[in-house]
Every structure is written in C-alpha cells, then in structure tokens.
Amino acid sequence: MRKFTANIVLLAASFFLISCSATNARFPTKSFGQPYDKPTTIKGILSKPEGEGPFPAVVLLHTCGGLKSHVTQDWPNFLTDLGYVVLTVDSFGPRWLNSCGQLIGWKILQAEDAFGALEYLATLPAVNPDRIGVMGFSAGAIAINSVLANQMKTDSDKNSFRAAIAMYGHCRELFNYYENSVPLLEIMGEYDTQNTPSCIDAGKNFPGLKVEVLPGAHHAFDNFGASGTTGRGGSCMQYSESATQRARKLTKEFFSKYLGR
User: Fold this and answer.
1) Half-sphere exposure in the Cβ direction for 109 (13 Å, CA)
2) N or C: which end of the chain has fewer CB within 10 A?
3) Which DSSP state fits 259?
C-alpha cells in the first residue's frame, strides 16, 4: 500500500512539473494580405528548456482534431529536452471551433497563425529569432505544404521559418518548392494511403524535398489515442511506438542540422 501511495505521489509530482514547465501565450494572427483591422488573438502553450538561452524554437500546428496530448505534451517534452523552445498553437479555441470542417479557409488561417507565432517568438529574450522552425501534424502539415512552403523562399528572408517538418499531411498543393526554398521534411506512414502517395510524387518532382516513409505506419502514428479513419474512404489512424521513435530520430537530426541546439 505504501509503495502504491508513493507511486501516486511521484506521478502527481511529475505531472505538476510538466504543467509548471509550460505557460500560456497570446499573440495576434498575421495576415498574408491586407492587415486585419482586428486580428484574431491566438492562444498557445509555450514550453521552454531549463536555462536562459537564447534557444532555437519550434512552432507546432495541430491536426483537425485540435489540441491533443501529442502536441501539448509528447512533442513539446521531447523538443524541450533537446534544447528548443516550443510554442503549440491553438487555431480552433480562439475561434470557438473544434474541427477543420467548421473553419472555411482553415489552411490559410492556420498558416497565418503560424506566422503570428513566429513573430511572437522572435520577441522573446529566450528565443534566437534566426533559428525558428515549424512542425505540423495532418491538418497542420497540410497548412505547411499548401501555404507556408509557398511563402518561405530563402534564408535571406528574415520573416521566415528556417526549417519545416510536415507529419502525415498530403502534398497535393505543394507547387513552389525549389532549391532556394526553406528546408522541408515530410514524415509519412507507409499505410497512409490518402496522403503518402502525393508526397512521394512531390519528392520526385522537387529534388530538394526530403520525404521519409515509415514502414508499417498508419496516419497519426504518433498520437497514442488515434483510432478510426481520416474520413469517408480515408486512411486508418493507428498509433505506433516504433514509428513514433523513428519520427523523433528524424526530427532530431533535421532540426539539429538546420536550427542547431
């Protein structure tokens, strides 16, 4: 009984530490065109490594399911352990939504939220403004491939991300990725039949694009609670520990190369 009680106390203490390592953030979204008269104030979860920095940083963009534990805890914990400040963006909450289907033009709005997060992070003393990357999951990855990748051109652009990772989002609208584009890595599941083929094709059309297909993995392989499909006739969603660990290794290597630690 004492051992059980001690384990509960340790679990509660570890949860408290995780909770205390993250703070709430607020920042305005950033329009790609004419500035908004009243830009939406976006909410986010800001996680920082120990120490004063300045650190490189990563913006996380969620799926159509909104904020789930893999973007609020799992990936932030992994990335902060590597020495990155992490800002998980909530594109749905401030707009009183809970899915992509309720948000017209969600790809553009989620991408604008990402640039708002970029500008916000660049103002923080703990962040190196020249070393900020972005990582999207499913819908967030589609926002990267369909919008952000067409906006991010060269390292000479100080208002751009320095590297991007798109996790299991389709590449059907990735049109303008060339040699001077910001480094982009696609991490896909072998059995994600709705999305992976388009990214394999994009990798053939754009030699600079890096595409990694994880054997045996489905859509949302890093989300422990994933189940069902991505829609009618869509890909199966299923968690995979081995695929998640492989994705983390690829992420570590990619961000280390382009953002440093």
Assistant:
1) 18
2) N
3) T
Per-residue confidence (pLDDT) for residue 6, from 0 to 100: 37
Q: Which residue has the tokens 């008269």?
A: 37
pLDDT tens string 198-255: 999 999 999 889 999 999 999 999 999 877 777 666 789 899 999 999 999 999 999 9
- Give helix then strand counts, H and E, for the chain: 8, 8
Sign, Cα dihedral of 26, 84, 150, 193: negative
Helices (H), ranges, 189-240: 196-205
pLDDT band at 33 (very low <50, low <70, confident <90, very high): confident
Tally of CB atoms within 10 A around 14: 10
Which helix (H) or strand (E) covers residue 102, if one does?
Answer: none
Separation of alpha carbons 18 and 72, rounded Å: 10
Question: What are the tokens at 95?
Answer: 């707009």
Q: Has domain 24-258 been given CATH number 1.20.140.10?
A: no
How far is the C-alpha of 178 from the C-alpha of 20, rounded, in Å?
Answer: 42
**Residue 69 three-state SS:** helix
H or E element at residue 54:
none
Tens-digit pLDDT profile for residues 49-59? 998 889 999 99
- Mean pLDDT confidence for 255-259: 96
Nearest to 43 by CA among 62, 58, 28, 32: 28
Burial class (CB in 10 A: 0-12, 13-18, 19+), 66: middle
Q: Are strands 184-189 and 41-47 parallel, antiparallel or unpaired?
A: unpaired
d(C-alpha 105, C-alpha 189), whole Å: 26
For residue 218, how far is the Cα from the chain centroid?
18
Q: How many whole angstroms separate alpha carbon 110 and alpha carbon 137?
A: 12
